[in-house]
Inverse folding.
């Protein structure tokens, strides 16, 4: 084992033990080196040698392995830039510029410091630090965040008011990474909230709010997807169950959030993605700024962004993509024709349940800077949209 940092070398040596007291096999050695390179922060390679003088003298095959590692010359730390644009007719266009600072192995092997700044349509500043607790798989992840954004209230796709939302606070996660596919954690979060009317009618069930909120939850993530956009196959399940408490203008309430997606490919160029999203406070009266929303790209395309607000929402999607062109290596996955169906339900204490559905179609480009989509959607109640989206890098 050889490298410039003894503490990192100790962790790499723990990985290297997979080869100890076993016959040398190139596939196993390469797998160990790939694990060392895995998070993208380190370069690694290996060489073989004959561990005994007798073996060297007799010309026996090599029976020892030495791994060399070093930090990548180009980083970390890294500074990443990105853009997110959502535009549709009869709607509010949002443009957001993203800046992310990432420092891997900061303070110890396997740790990561991540800071984000988002400016434009909204302002968001946040920092989180992922810290493994030894080699057990357990981790601690504290975080802080400030969010300031406009919120538009809609009535039948007509904007009736604009509100201001600010959330400032932080929390921490304590959990375990079981393997590359599964992670489980306990989460705590506390924030202060400001919610006020800027213009238009005072149609919100929470006219004004300046107070606090707290929540505690368990969170499970399981994924076998191979790409963030247009994954050719794989399953993803993101499940959170918790309790909201000591929150201004709200009753204490349990909540559940579930996102599930399954994708698969047939005949090489055809991809189908089936997904569902369920969010619920179990019909408890919760302050308006904490409620769930539907509307906008991949959340009922034919509706305005966040047009529907409620304490309980449900959404199902079926998406078909056909690759019509491949992009050069490093430029992207490809160009797809896409179409799909969405159906959503929203419930709130003040209004009858809302059922909405639509069909959409367009063109999608999967690139290193994110997905670029252009298309249109037609829904019930004469909801129609032509849309363009772009983003994002991370």
């Amino acid at each position: 084992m050889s490298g410039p940092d003894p503490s990192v070398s100790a962790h790499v040596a723990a990985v290297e033990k997979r080869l100890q007291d076993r016959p040398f096999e190139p596939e196993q050695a390469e797998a160990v080196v790939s694990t060392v390179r895995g998070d993208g922060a380190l370069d690694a390679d290996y060489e073989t040698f004959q561990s005994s003088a007798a073996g060297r003298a007799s010309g026996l095959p090599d029976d020892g392995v030495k791994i060399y590692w070093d930090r990548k010359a180009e980083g970390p730390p890294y500074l990443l830039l990105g853009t997110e644009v959502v535009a549709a007719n009869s709607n509010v266009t949002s443009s957001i510029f993203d800046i992310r600072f990432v420092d891997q192995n900061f303070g110890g092997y396997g740790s990561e410091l991540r800071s984000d700044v988002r400016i434009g349509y909204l302002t968001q500043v946040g920092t989180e630090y992922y810290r493994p607790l030894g080699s057990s798989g357990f981790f601690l992840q504290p975080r802080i965040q400030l969010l300031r954004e406009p919120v538009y209230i809609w009535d039948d796709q007509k904007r009736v008011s604009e509100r201001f939302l600010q959330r400032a606070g932080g929390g921490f996660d304590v959990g375990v990474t079981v393997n590359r596919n599964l992670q489980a954690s306990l989460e705590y979060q506390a924030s202060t909230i400001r919610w006020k009317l800027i213009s238009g009618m005072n149609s919100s069930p929470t006219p004004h709010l300046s107070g606090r909120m707290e929540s505690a939850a368990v969170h499970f993530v399981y994924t076998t997807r191979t790409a963030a956009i247009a994954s050719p196959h794989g399953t993803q399940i993101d499940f959170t169950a918790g309790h909201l408490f000591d929150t201004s203008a709200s009753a204490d309430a349990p909540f559940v959030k579930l996102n599930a997606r399954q994708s698969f490919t047939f005949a090489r160029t055809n991809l189908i993605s089936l997904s569902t999203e369920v969010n619920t406070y179990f019909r408890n009266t919760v302050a308006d700024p904490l409620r769930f929303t539907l509307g906008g790209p991949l959340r009922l395309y034919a509706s305005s962004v966040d047009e529907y607000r409620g304490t309980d929402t449900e959404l199902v999607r079926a998406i078909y993509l056909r690759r019509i062109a491949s992009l050069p290596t490093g430029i992207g996955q490809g160009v797809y024709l896409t179409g799909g169906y969405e159906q959503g339900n929203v419930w709130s204490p003040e209004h009858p349940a809302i059922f909405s559905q639509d069909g959409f179609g367009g063109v999608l480009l999967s690139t290193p800077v994110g997905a670029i989509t252009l298309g249109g959607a037609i829904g019930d109640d004469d909801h129609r949209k032509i849309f363009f989206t772009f983003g994002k890098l991370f």
Observations:
- The mean pLDDT is 87.
- Residues 35 and 92 are 45 Å apart (CA to CA).
- The radius of gyration is 25 Å.
